[in-house]
Specification:
This protein has 305 residues and is mainly alpha-helical. The protein has ten helices and three strands, in the order αααααααββαβαα. The C terminus is likely disordered.
């Protein structure tokens, strides 16, 4: 992430200078893109630091969701600072045209070429880190996912800007560069939407992975003291932490002391089986089985787990 931040700051300055010299809407769009990426890297660094704070009385489940909140802000930053500004540059070029200077455009293309190399190196670094941390599963981390998305988008955006500027120089038609700016804007809006949607799902209380929920349900069903598992609820409280709440019906004939021993043993078994289950709650109930089967958690409707 620090590598991506350093690269984005240098590239943003170079693109802005080149964009003003060449009066290039595509290059200015890419400068706004790099500025947005730089600001987002700061957001993500704050997320990493703040999400590691231990739980306290005000936040008994910890601060793990800080990562999701700051990732949502990063998505908003990409949309506003990158996507909207790129659309503005594209429409402005179509409406008023753009002054073309050969030397300025050559300088702009050189800047974009350097930016392509720097963004490519940053992307390779991010992909390498993702593979080291577990491949596709590591992209559960919103910070790393955002960095990979930003770097991939940056490489594609620079490529679009190069094509737009080159066609503008070759044909003298500003429409090519305006189209490049609009395409960059559309790309950024799409990436911002995808990142924002994922952050939103995690922020409002996304269920744990289906595989982990399945292991918990199987473990509960295998306990001899449990007659039925009426409902199972899970919620991610951080990148590597989750809350588990289960409503179970125990077999008849257990006294209160035995129930307590069984509950403690089951909680320990769940914690060993699913290490991210850091908060575990068991609710012993005699709710009718038909009512339990009709609950969202049992039927798989939205809101259940």
């Amino acid at each position: 992430m620090l590598v991506a931040l350093a690269a984005n700051l240098v590239i943003a300055v170079a693109k802005a200078v080149g964009g003003f010299l060449a009066a290039s809407p595509a290059l200015l769009s890419e400068a706004a893109h790099s500025v947005a990426d730089s600001l987002n890297e700061v957001f993500l660094l704050a997320a990493l630091r703040r999400s590691r704070r231990p739980a306290d009385k005000r936040h008994p489940f910890g601060y793990g969701k800080e990562r999701f909140f700051w990732s949502l802000l990063a998505a908003v930053g990409i949309f506003v600072m990158g996507g909207c500004f790129s659309f503005f540059q594209g429409f402005e070029a179509l409406t008023n045209g753009a002054e073309e200077t050969f030397s300025g455009y050559v300088a702009g293309l050189v800047v974009l070429g350097v930016a392509f190399l720097a963004e490519g190196i940053s992307l390779l670094r991010a992909v390498y880190q993702a593979r080291r941390q577990g491949g596709a599963s590591s992209l559960r981390d919103p910070a790393l996912r955002t960095v990979v998305a930003e770097d991939g988008t940056a490489v594609l955006g620079v490529s679009l800007a190069i094509v737009g500027m080159a066609l503008h120089m070759a044909t003298g038609q500003v429409v090519w560069e305006a189209a490049a700016s609009l395409a960059i804007g559309a790309l950024l809006v799409y990436v911002a939407y995808r990142l924002g949607r994922e952050a939103r799902d995690q922020l409002i209380g996304e269920a744990a992975d289906p595989e982990a929920s399945g292991r918990i349900r199987s473990l509960l069903a295998a306990q001899p003291e449990i007659d039925t598992v009426e409902a199972l609820f899970t919620m991610k409280t951080g990148l590597d932490s989750a809350l588990v709440a289960a409503r179970v019906d125990l077999v008849p004939g257990l006294d209160s002391e035995r129930v307590e021993e069984v509950a403690v043993r089951i909680k320990r078994s769940i914690a060993r089986t699913v290490p991210e289950a850091q908060q575990i709650f068991l609710d012993v109930t005699d709710r009718p089985a038909q009512e339990a089967r009709e609950s969202p958690a049992a039927t798989g409707e939205r809101g259940g787990a």
